[in-house]
Write a sequence for this structure.
């Protein structure tokens, strides 16, 4: 005991000496121009943290090897409950006997409440492993997220862990969220399968969550890939990086080296869509100078200006608006328009009646226009010949200068016909002459 006290006193005196020396060094460094903070000033060496310790290793609970609780059992009962969706009720009823048997081997009691739609797990007097209740909690969470029971029961093993990543609130737009979620799955699940092979994890995308089962390192990699995908970074880039890392892990020479020179860096390029104002103004000035030089070189400037100002052509040049520092006049609001028309002082029923009357008048006008258009189809319009129009209606056809179809077909022969020509007879004459021409051509 005295040796321990003496060693403690020596360590305290050594620490005081080191603290004094540190204070002196701090004063010297403060006086110097370059002030650098020593972040390792108060850090001590941890004798229990040696390089030969594997912090990722999980030690299983083995009662045969002497792993027992003090007192032989847990002092208090621990329980966890979770809700499940309605569509999982039928499947859970079918596999609940399997879940009960698996949890019973570890001394865990489970309950399925179909009225409330919940699953509950709790410890019993037979529970010997204090951590198994947390594994049972993870089990019911995975069952609620549509993972099959045989796969979810693997989480009870000591080397299997799980994580449920919530992705529902990472993207506001629903359509964009669905696109990025489908991008994570890939065509026919190819992207998800590649991620499973590289991380040695089981991944299931269901609704607004991504369920992952595997080791701690694999779950960490999957979480980073999923979150990057929701931030609009394609999973293919991260998959390529993971493939390179897996190949580098096989080489023992590169164990203690930095791998950044081997890994690809995918930086997001900020493409400037809108050009700066100075560049736009400079190009505009260059264009104006080129146009003025071309205009001065032309000899026929007057004719070109006359063509541009012709009434039939529209000028392509935009007129520059005169700059005014005052804002445009404010447009009248809906209430102002109602006050002008007098509609503001009407009751709600009178407004509806007025709108209904306006709709009826518009519909009546449309129906009348359609009726007139249908009637015009049955009105006979006589055919005018070009020769009669040129001659003013003298010598050919009727007194109005009109010629029928028969007159045109006869080559200008005089025929006495009324203005109202029978359309059926004209069609018959046209068809007879058409077949007569065909017969002459064949002969």
């Amino acid at each position: 005991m005295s040796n321990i006290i003496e060693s403690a006193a020596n360590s305290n005196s050594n620490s005081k000496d080191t603290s004094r020396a540190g204070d002196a060094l701090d004063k010297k460094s403060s006086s110097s121009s370059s002030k650098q903070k020593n972040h390792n000033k108060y850090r001590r060496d941890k004798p229990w943290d040696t390089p030969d310790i594997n912090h990722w290793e999980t030690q299983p609970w083995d009662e045969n090897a002497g792993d027992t609780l003090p007192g032989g059992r847990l002092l208090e009962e621990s329980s966890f409950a979770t809700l499940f969706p309605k569509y999982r009720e039928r499947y859970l009823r079918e596999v609940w006997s399997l879940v009960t048997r698996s949890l019973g081997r570890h001394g865990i009691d489970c309950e399925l409440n179909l009225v409330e739609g919940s699953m509950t797990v709790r410890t019993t007097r037979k529970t010997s492993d204090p951590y198994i209740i947390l594994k049972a909690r993870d089990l019911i969470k995975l069952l609620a997220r549509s993972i099959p029971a045989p796969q979810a029961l693997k989480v009870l093993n000591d080397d299997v862990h799980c994580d449920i990543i919530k992705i529902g609130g990472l993207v506001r737009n629903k359509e964009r969220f669905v696109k990025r979620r489908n991008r994570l799955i890939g065509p026919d699940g190819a992207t998800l399968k590649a991620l499973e092979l590289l991380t040695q994890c089981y991944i299931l995308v269901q609704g607004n969550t991504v369920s992952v089962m595997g080791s701690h390192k694999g779950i960490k990699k999957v979480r980073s890939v999923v979150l990057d995908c929701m931030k609009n970074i394609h999973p293919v880039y991260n998959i390529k990086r993971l493939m390179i890392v897996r190949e580098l892990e096989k080489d023992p020479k590169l164990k203690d080296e930095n791998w950044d020179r081997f890994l690809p860096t995918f930086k997001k390029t900020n493409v400037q869509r809108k050009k700066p104002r100075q560049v736009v103004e400079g190009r505009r000035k260059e264009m104006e100078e080129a146009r003025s030089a071309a205009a001065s070189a032309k000899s026929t400037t007057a004719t070109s200006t006359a063509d541009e100002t012709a009434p039939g052509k529209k000028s392509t040049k935009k007129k520059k608006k005169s700059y005014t520092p005052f804002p445009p006049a404010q447009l009248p609001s809906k209430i102002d328009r109602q006050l002008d028309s007098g509609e503001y002082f009407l009751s709600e029923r009178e407004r509806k009646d007025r709108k209904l009357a306006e709709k009826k008048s518009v519909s009546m006008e449309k129906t009348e226009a359609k009726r007139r258009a249908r009637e015009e189809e049955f009105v006979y319009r006589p055919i005018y010949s070009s020769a009669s129009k040129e001659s003013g209606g003298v010598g050919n056809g009727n007194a109005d200068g009109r010629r029928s179809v028969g007159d045109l077909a006869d080559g200008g022969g005089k025929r006495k016909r009324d203005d109202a020509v029978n359309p059926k007879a004209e069609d018959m004459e046209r068809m007879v002459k058409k077949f007569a021409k065909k017969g002459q051509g064949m002969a």
Q: What stands out?
A: The radius of gyration is 46 Å. Residues 1-22, 24-33, 386-420 have pLDDT under 50 and may be disordered. The domain at 159-267 is CATH 3.30.1370.10 (Ribosomal Protein S8; Chain: A, domain 1).
